[in-house]
Input
Amino acid sequence: MCGLAGLFHPLDPAVPAVRPIRGMTDALAHRGPDGDGFHREPHLALGHRRLSVVDLAGGTQPMSTADGQVTVCFNGEIYNHAALRPLLEAAGHRFRTRSDTEAILHGWTEWGTGCLDRLKGMFAFAVWDRQRGELLLARDRLGEKPLYYTWLPDGRFAFASEMAGLLALPELPRRIDPAAVDDFLALGYVPDPGTIYAGIHRLPAGHFLLLRRGETGRPAPRRYWRPPTAAAAAPADAPAELARRLDAAVRAQLMADVPLGAFLSGGVDSSAVTALAARAQGEGLGGSLATFTIGFPGEADERPLAARTASSLGTTHRSEVAAMDYVAAARGQARIFGEPFGDHSAVPMLAVCTLARRHVTVALSGDGGDEVFAGYRRYAFHALAEGVRSFIPAGARRRVIGGLARLYPKLDRAPRWLRAKHTLTEISLDSALGYYRTVCKLHEERRRELFSPAFRAAVDGHDPSARFGRLMAECDPEDALLQAQYADLHTYLPGDILVKADRTAMAVSLEVRPPILDPELVAWGMALPARLKLQGGTGKHVLRRAMEPLLPSDLLWGRKRGFAAEIGGQFRAQAETVRGRLLGGPMLDSGLFHAPALARLLEEHAAGRLDHAQGLWQLLVLEGFLAAEAGTAGAVLESAPA
Output
């Protein structure tokens, strides 16, 4: 795993100065503590920070072809580089290293942008072709590796693995985007291609950007891969086929010249990956697999189940208890993520990455199983709502069920079966908007109450739900489950899950690999008929069946708790600290919020009348970001809150 950065001026042939590119890579040092490298020539400067994983001696970057015509900076792993090598050698290419990086160099020379269809792995890279005068930026199919870019006021194009690399440039405008703030409070993250800053963009997953020397325009990203939009026929034996495909993906991702381990929770996804990795290690690919678990005191503690699984699989297991102060942790999120990030499971994720990094350089994870094989509970709720929608005309749903939803009390602290308000609301809406309501953290009515009048006007007309309608409309209209999965694969997976994995791991210089997100496996799994993924309200049915020969029944069919933490109780116990932050200078100076509405939110939660834990966490994270930005970024609004 690495960090890359670059500066390119399509019109100015001067050789860029070394100081700016070095400043950019210094800001990415945590992504690559094993060394740095630079390449400068007319129009272009490239910088790289390396975390050595494959070909420790020969994989130094930036890497160029023997004739110096093509140069690459690369972050990630190309798992099929050994299979590509003989194809390229047969075409006349000569390899000088064992590094997977070199496969990109020769692949571009031979196939141009067509190389992206052949590369299997997680990657973000920049290829400069001096002869063609072309700069290619590309990101892997699912968005496992990040890549940010912007245009500077003087006409230069800048890019980096994290926003920190771009923010190292003092001439970069740092104006916060009001629409991004609205998106963050709605979803808990800023979705691609936006960021919290106006003018800084993320290259979307499965896209590339091609810039040319002498070009005066600003080219748009182009898509080279998309997941299935309709289901295919069911395989003859889907569980057996899935077991074979996942085993192949795991074996491919065991490629490393450094110690490798796996995260192991009490869930199906990480346990499946661990079981297959442990079996492969036992067949001669290495010694005992190292596994790592973070637990919480109380019923949510997954350490006992993880320990039993580790024992049955013969792994070398290590675990720790996470006792965390989420109020304090909120202040640190901006440093790790570069922008507000509202998934509080990032805090224990950082803890398990820290534990793993003490023993390994690479860790396998179970990320992607919920999206690909329909593991989230919201998929079952959405399928239920869609079934009701099919029997009740839209007008009646809006009038009758919508009316019931408005009258039904918000019972946040009641047993789950009594909390019907959200379900009734979803059923009353059309499919896409209903699904958006299930993933929304702070609904529009709550956000608008919190916003100052000036900020409310600034985001008037912006609708965070609109992208869900567009995405779901791309899918088979008869397959509601696939529509929801497809939307998540373009929003929640690259915007939350993979951002969380990359940034927390890279903060401690750990590489994380999710074998379930092998693109061929993703395409196959997404195209399975809904009945194979979701049965009787239970998701990941086919994955559970596939793993029955390897994992115990109570793990496969029991309830998964995930990184559970009672953050709401912490916010009540530290109510005065929370109040001081949310009603303090950075929040009110930003011009975003209406102080009395923030105070009401705090009081309702502190008194136990309503559970605002998620909203308070997001506001605390945003406060930490605004505090870090004070005196650096431009004001969100020119006017102060009313």
Notes: Residues 377-473 form one domain. The CA atoms of residues 249 and 518 lie 6 Å apart. The longest strand covers residues 70-78.
